[in-house]
Design brief:
By secondary structure, the chain is of the alpha+beta class. The protein has helices at about 5-25, 25-55, 65-70, 75-85, and strands at about 90, 100-105, 110-115, 120-125. Helices cover about 50% and strands about 15% of the residues. The longest helix has 30 residues, at about 25-55. The N and C termini lie far apart (about 65 Å). About 10% of the residues are buried.
């Protein structure tokens, strides 16, 4: 369990206890209503991201170089999917750790991302070698 989850659960507990101390049962109802609203906002964001990604080819990104520049260690898989607007092409077996996904652009540059526990740990950009153009005689 990471620090953010512990902090979130502690915040929910403090909010609920504070609401009980201040308003009794109506306070508990208000706190639970706020928590449910917060969960629904996150769920709606996730569904919107996945709906946009469903309209694009799997493993395709507009620019692999720009994606490489925007990636940060610790980013969640959902955040990377939101950036690329595409589901990554899974390179490892399903439900194994670490998970490796790739995204390719039209110039055949490839970004390979490794996720451990749903968080980005490392990534690499591979650009194709430029081939000299042969003039037509």
């Amino acid at each position: 369990m990471n620090f953010n989850r512990i902090l979130t659960l502690t915040g929910i507990a403090v909010l609920t206890v504070g609401a009980w101390q201040a308003f009794g049962w109506p306070g508990i109802a208000l706190a639970v209503g706020g928590i449910v609203m917060w969960v629904l906002l996150h769920f709606t964001r996730m569904v919107t991201i996945l709906k946009k990604a469903a309209d694009r080819p799997i493993g395709h990104v507009a620019s692999a170089v720009m994606l490489n520049a925007k990636l940060r260690k610790g980013a969640t898989l959902m955040h990377v999917i939101a950036m690329t607007r595409s589901l990554g092409l899974l390179q490892t077996e399903k439900d194994t750790q670490p998970e490796v996904f790739t995204w390719t652009d039209t110039s055949e540059s490839v970004v390979t991302c490794t996720f451990v526990g749903g968080r980005l740990t490392e990534w690499t950009l591979v650009r194709p070698e430029e081939r000299p153009e042969v003039p037509n005689p």
